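Before a computer can learn anything about folding, someone has to put a protein's shape into writing. The outcome of that step, for a single protein, is printed below:
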Amino acid sequence: MSRNDLLKWLVLAILAMLSAYVVYPPFETEGPDGTKRPGKIRRGLDLSGGASFTVAIDEERMAADLRAENPDMDEQTLRAKVRAALKDADSRTIEVIRNRIDKTGINEPVIQAGKDHRINIQLPGITPEKYEEAEKSIRSAAFLEFKLVHAQNDRLVDKLLASGHAPEGYILDGRSFRRGPDYKGVSEAPDYFSRLSLFEVPDPRYAFMLEKASDGSYSPIFVLRKAELTGDALSSARVERNQITGKQHIALNFNAKGTAEFARVTKAYAPRGSKNKDSDVGRQLAIIMDDTLYSAPVIKSEIPSGQAQITGNFSPAEANQLRNILNAGSLPAPMKILEQRSISPTLGEDAVKRALNAGLVGIVIIMAFMLAYYTYCGLVANVALVLNLLLLPVGLVFASNVLGVFVPDSSGGASNPMALPVLTMPGIAGIMLTIGMAVDANVLIFERIREEFATGKSTRTAVAAGYDRAFLAIFDSNITTLLTAAILFIFGAGPIRGYAIMLSAGILISMFTALVVTRLVFNATVPEASVKPFKMFQMIKSPSFDFIKPAKLCIITSVSIVVITCAIFAVRVFKNPSDVMAVDFVGGAAVTYSYKEKASDIEIKAIAEKAVNNDATVQYQSTLDSSGDLLLIKTSVVTVGDRNSAAVILDALNENFPQCAFAITGDDIVGSAVGDDLKRAATQAVIISLIGILIYVSLRFEFGFALGAVAALAHDALFTFGVYSLFGRQMSLTTVAALLTIVGYSVNNTIVIFDRIRETLRKDFKTDFKTLCNQALNATLSRTMLTSLTTIMAALSLFLFGGVAISDFSFAMLIGLLVGTYTSLIVAPTVMLAWYSKRRPFAPKDK
């Protein structure tokens, strides 16, 4: 064994150990002392449930704050200002809350708007620490303000302390205050902070505030109500440590406008400044966020750099959380938490087991097929497939950390860098399909080895040449898909980023096992003197199909199908969006039921869907105070005929489960789980991905090739979308995950064929371009059919045996895989040929 091979085996062993460390123990365990320890695999809401918050904009607090700022305002004007502030507040609130939750490291939250400015937030299986952090992030409005301290603050404070008076909820302790025993009770009043701000103020323009010291005491400060700067002037925030004191502080950077304003304020109120001419001491500038005064430093000179600091007695976790909240942006209004619940998985154990078993069946079928078709090479490929599963955890961690470099705090500044992303049922299905798609690289290599054996080469020489000749196709196809994943992560948000991590990890690991591990196995097992070719079955021997001749008719037919099915979808959306789009996209009814006896969630789902003739999600919930258990059913149908869907479902449930005695406890209208922020991010990510593919493929090939690849990608996505909806299935977030997977598959498939066309062009300078394209398509036909067949096996297994949990995902994948095979053979080459219009493209040198 060579030294180089030994080093690679060592790398494989290290990666295997790292993967085991990342994933073990996978699930929750109980220690000797009875304490529960969380597992390393974090499951999504559909697999393990989690926690639920119902929050609302605090209109009373908002009105009280406005009243304090303008004591003479009449009631009508006050209410008009509140209504104006609430206009379009929901979408902005959802965007900020989603950003904050993402920064805590809690992935895949479900956030939906309800009526009366209520917002429902569901967080998958979180620890008590994460729960507390999420609660603080949701409560905080992040109103950052810079306000001037009263010029005579020291005199006013001395006067207050001499009087012996203390604000409500506090007691006097020397020259400061401490919280009294009644603080918690009085501070929960809606107008408490408004009343506190009026305590002993010299005139209504100023507010009374307290600055917390390291010993827990509070010093009084009188602050001007008018803010000199607000959080709108902020560009970014980061945590820094003072090298002398060791204490942490938040370093702030202002945007261009904020920098100019901050320079103006500090210059004017510095010693002998334009608004502080009679004093050799600068004014104090208080830094306040959410009614909390963090510090009030003295302005010593003009600060033109656009930088400031928030100092205080922060723990590392508190500093990180404050930074994340500031970077996520401020809420348009203060929030209050109305209800907190623990929630059960949206998928029952039986549904999860069925899906997992279906995935395993698919993998076993693929492995059996590879073994039968490629014999010994198939055995080597199966070793690689098993290693793909074993190494995937370390691949996920690597991908999430590398991608996280491009989006700071995308997974939370305080989160564990070795933590796995949240696992959902579509994620599991995606892993199963990644295994099917991972066969592609092995098939490419084995087909190249077959070609080398046909030239009479010895076994070792044929293997080496096969790997060398397959490398460019594997590299280009996978790099293009990786580029797509990176762009989706950087410019996307929420579930889009989760998909990008899963796709990137699958590609990286499958490239490593196909190009490195299988080569190591061949080097270790094939004797130097061996000349006997490997036994391989051949599905299509010497194919000579003319793919270009019928291409025009085929493309007209498939484009017509796309136009017709998408038009039908558009008409159905116009007539009744809930017929074709799930509650994820259009919102609908969210009904909670009480019950005396629990029933099967699978049966309840089937009954609810039959009652409203539409899709429905089912979830058991428990109130945190143990006051009762509830059943939540969501559906995009609000009314059935002239009846409320909640009542229709109730009748159906009690008819089938009379022993449960279901009763309606809440009936709400919820908005889309895909908020405007996610829609914008997803649209932006897809557009930039297409541009990225155009640029990369143009650099590696030529623009005509890039145009063909993007045309094939768009065709696959639209064809799948149209045909899927034609079968009466609803578009949901799960379907979007399938479409994104199809996009990755389509790019990979097309680039492999284009690589062979490029190679053929470089070898033959006489044959016309159209004939060369046909030759390349026939040369790669066996690989194209084999890759499609193995991936379809995995998707078909999920569809037939996976049950309702992944039926929509696997059905969309089946359509996409079938049309993707057709597109890579017909659409992509034809579009590329049309661009060159009978001229021969220049074949660039390898880069």
Notes: The longest strand covers residues 335-343. The two ends are 31 Å apart (CA to CA). Residues 700 and 846 are 8 Å apart (CA to CA).
